[in-house]
Please model this.
Amino acid sequence: MVAAWPMSIDLQTVKKIASLSRISVSDAEAEAMVPELNNILGWVEQLGEVDVSGVEPMTAVIPNHQRLRDDVVTDGNVRDKVLANAPQAEHGFFAVPKVIE
Amino acid sequence: MLRFAQQKASTSLSPNGIKILTDLTDLTVAEIRDGFRAGDFSAREVAEGFNANVAAAKALNAFIVETPEKALEAADAADKALAAGETLGALSGVPIGMKDLFCTQGVQTTAASHMLEGFVPTYESTVSAKLWDAGAGMLGKLNLDQFAMGSSNETSYFGNVISPWKRDGGDNSALAPGGSSGGSSSAIAARLCPAATGTDTGGSIRQPAAFTGISGIKPTYGRCSRWGIVAFASSLDQAGPMARTVRDNALLLDVMAGFDPKDSTSLNLPVPQWEAGLSSNLKGKTVGIPKEYRPDGLNAEIAALWDQGIAWLKDAGATVVEVSLPHTKYALPTYYIIAPAEASSNLARYDGVRYGQRDLPDGAGLQDMYAATRAAGFGPEVKRRIMIGTYVLSAGFYDAYYTQAQKVRALIARDFDLAFEQCDLLLTPTAPSAAFTLGEKQADPLAMYLNDIFTVPASLAGLPAMSVPGGVDSQGLPLGLQIIGKALDEQTVLNAGLAIEERAGFVARPDKWW
Model:
């Protein structure tokens, strides 16, 4: 069995999750999400009642081997294709707002 | 009996002996393929017919982008190849719809999101490339739930897809085509395309197929390459075909499946010839009926159809046994930890830097840009799932949620392994109800999630599963039966589907109102 399930989440936790998710939310949006997320998280907590002693977590649904390919260049020289959908590309690079003052 | 016996379904004789062409858009993929080769009609006539149907069906909102020129281009190439006596592709002359989750080179690919609005891939997904290489032509990019997250096609940034079906008795409510492959299901049921691609993470091929009276198969996880498909939950996502007949599904899957070194979970196994292997004789096969799929309060019409399906499979020669999948009730909560967790990780790539939308408020720094971009680019259901996924993966909660879910997932898969010691396939309903009214479940995310109760377990176990229409309910709406097979045994799934199709004689179709 697992440790105790987390307590229900509050407004502060919702704001923290939003921040970790890099999604800006207004106070009103965060307020609305509190009951919504609690409802869903409360429902999934029933998994806590399943006896999983001795069970390994699943890592692959169908037995498959990780393949190793030869260590050779198989791709590249497609800079313009890589940049083609960038919201802003300059001098052959992705451009972002200034990160260092 | 099959609705169309073998060949020549496309032509009939009028009373005065003149050959009349049946509407080409009523033909199945196999009939189009064979009729084109036999010279009964040209590929261009077929493409023009479907292009006209697509253009006239805006009310269904099934397409995000229409590409009539692509369909005609492939058709002309097919006609030319036939005239020149060149080798034809397996799908020469056949136009199809492409779910807008598959990257198509030079054609906008959005996953029905604002985030990817305007994204024009510079490469082609493996599955779509295989279909074009086989001669198929593209009618357009089909609408879906945003990032394939939804069961009713109500989360698309580009608006709801409407089912062509209406309830009997003058009820004019707009019905859900199912989701997430709702554009695919709606378009096929409305004869806008004879077949389409779908993707299935927790039922996104099977449930929309059931809601619209068509067939669709999710193959074994790893059969179809995920390369170039916009990712939702990578350990669950599988592509598959949707069409009106089991044969069409088999012949499309023949083309779509196969090893791809560009997908690390692609199975390096030979692809059977499923269409050639089709047989509705189920002698020697044992069908398992999982008792946990008959909960108290199961809709009586669904239960009755299920009983009818059991009788059909017995009639086809199969033996029927009851089996138990004791962890079934935990499948949905398991799924709603694992799928959001993987989604939160996969969708981290939408950062406003490399592709898609960017929202840069005045004076914003990099972190502000990320947060503003993602707030503007994702719809509410996508945000909800990313946040649940972020939470269950966050420090301190990972073991309680994610590790526990992966353990329960192992138990769910083991349930299937044990059941398959007693039987070769499972028969269940596809969905707990017929299509519901758009808006009916929008207010309550949990109620919407529960719609996937019968389809999610096979997804968690990576098993092949298909939905075929079994009949209509008292309101005239289609109901589907689901067949779940052993890993890699798509043939038995398709064969059982064929046995049901032959006996169900499902010919109901929506009256045209659009």
Q: What stands out?
A: The CA atoms of residues 78 and 84 of chain A lie 10 Å apart. The mean pLDDT of chain A is 90. Chain A touches chain B through 56 residues (CB under 8 Å). Chain A is about 35% helix and 5% strand.
